[in-house]
Structure prediction request, 253 residues.
Amino acid sequence: MEQVARHVWVVTSPTWLTTSTLVVDDDGACLLVDPALTPEEILALEQEVSRRGWHVAAGFSTHPHWDHVLWSAALPDVPRWATSVATDAATAEELTAQASRDLPGYRWDVIGGTTPLAPDTTEVPWTGPRAVVVPTPGHAPGHASLHLPEEGVLIAGDMLSDVEVPLLDDAPDAFEEYRHSLRRLADLDPRVVVPGHGRVAHRWVGHRRVHADERYLADLAAGTPPHDHRLADPRVRADHESQMALLSSRAGG
Ligand SMILES: [Zn+2]
Prediction:
């Protein structure tokens, strides 16, 4: 468990460098964001929380992709907040099907079943450090990042990664939405960026990631093959090629 700010710890799974983030109040109450990834890893996370004398008081899911809506029977049955758009975007059956396709051979206790935030909610309802919900659509319906202003931390969800390029939602305006979302995150100027997949970045590295994502999207828009080190990973390249094909079919049609 890596402490990245006074009240924030990050755990990283070896699979796709998937991160889980804990915001821990002074009394040990935790806000657990996107716990991941295998059932064993989520159980180990719960055991480490208990060992430290902490307790999970609330959850938050950044977006409705299966690897960001997991939970465990060993974790308390607390509200796991998500935007209402995210909550409505996929059923538990669809999310379970995504999981068994992407990472077969596991059985998770809970996939989906998040609690929708009221539409006018701007912060996660909990008593610990302030966690501002920042709507950042483009990657998935209802995608939201969390900004912890007192900690200087941005929990980005599936954006600002050093291992994955921006992957666009199916929505026709996803491209523009993603670009606006990147600007919104850059304007927050966080000290620490925690991506959903990849390594934690500190301020200037975070800015470099915004530029890398903007450059990738600009190349995609222009139909220019991007020179992006993240495409060396065959899995990321396959995702890149399918979204390039989708965009060019839309442009042609
Ligand atoms: Zn995702």
About this structure: The CA atoms of residues 140 and 202 lie 25 Å apart.
